Amino acid sequence: MNPILPLKHFVPDGEARQMPDGRLYRYGSYDISGETAYCSDRLHVFSTGDMMEWKDHGVVLCIEDIPWAAKGSMLYAPDCVYKDGKYYLYFCMNNAQEGVAVSDTPCGPFQDPVPVMYANGDSIDPAVLVDDDGQVYYFWGQFHLRGARMKKDMRTLDMETCRSCVLDEKNHGFHEGACIRKCRGKYYLLYTDTSRGRATCLSYAVSDRPLGPYRKGGMYGTDTCSRLG
């Protein structure tokens, strides 16, 4: 097995995005080599043009850049999207807050971090979709996945469109780590699944509309996350 990143870098909660420049960018939490704690107070971005050689763009956001972050907060599970010439990096912290920072490039640095307004309730693991018509959708949560349209400011949720249970543990085995994609007119949510008693497999659900309803399609990874990651 060939690691896609140098062995000194550890990037859990990975989110891969092909950006307008054609390169593939990997966003994710960042574990510091030699530390015993998971994740950290900073985020790195990596990119590749050939899936073989990867470039570390360094620290693109750190907790010190976020004046409203609670003391001792870490940064987790980011997602990044391109909209109208800007790149928006969404992230969560361990004080149940979610935020967004902006950059002119997909590799940052990301600046002016602000809270995502109304992203309440199990506020972890943001997942973002820019639909074909330009409408942005935002998903977040653990055990119950929430979703809503994003307003044009890219930081405020339209709560009139909010669904509090896009996916749940009972009907979909949903645990956390949602990822949203659109393919051939269908919307796919990928996530960690607890159907086998622990969140050690990956599943997907599909819908004709971004906010659902979603039907579970099945598992596409049934080994432990340490091997799938």
List the helices and strands and how they pair.
Layout: E1 15-18, E2 24-27, E3 42-48, E4 54-62, E5 75-83, E6 86-93, E7 98-103, E8 111-115, E9 127-130, E10 136-140, E11 144-150, E12 157-168, H1 169-172, E13 174-183, E14 186-193, E15 201-207, E16 215-221, H2 225-228
Antiparallel strand pairs: 1-2, 2-3, 3-4, 5-6, 6-7, 7-8, 9-10, 10-11, 11-12, 13-14, 14-15, 15-16
Keywords: Carbohydrate metabolism, Glycosidase, Hydrolase, Polysaccharide degradation, Xylan degradation
Site (Important for catalytic activity, responsible for pKa modulation of the active site Glu and correct orientation of both the proton donor and substrate): 125
GO molecular function, one term: hydrolase activity, hydrolyzing O-glycosyl compounds
